[in-house]
Amino acid sequence: MKISDVAMATGLSVDTLRFYEKIGLIDPPARDAAGRRVYDRDILGWIRFLGQLNATGMKQADRVRYARLRAKGRETLAERREMLEAHREVIRRQLEQLHDTLALMDRKVAIYHDLEKESADV
Q: In this protein, which residues make up the domain named HTH merR-type (predicted)?
């Protein structure tokens, strides 16, 4: 896949993909005879995973650290698992907070519905 294909498939810009390569989030791809990047389709799953980590608030430095550990192979399995377990706990707390916030919003909306009904009845 060319870099433009990866950009289109992931929604990332070409500049972002080059930046990810520069900081070590994605491995440098092979190059064709003209020196253009040629990505394996497997990169799409990896970029999707990185996006999910980003969406859940994992800092870029931690994503880079994870990517570097991943590049080292099986010797880092435990460390990567521990990173994901810690981040999973962060996500769990975020979900709990969002659930509590949603319940508060539901109560507030119900109050406004009641107040509007009272105003209309007067």
A: 1-58
CATH of residue 56 = 1.10.1660.10
Distance CA 16, CA 11 (A): 10
How many domains does the chain fold into? 1
Whose tokens are 């064709």? That residue is 32
The pLDDT tens digits of the residues spanning 20-70 come to: 999 999 999 999 999 999 999 999 999 999 999 999 999 999 999 999 999
Full-model pTM: 0.82
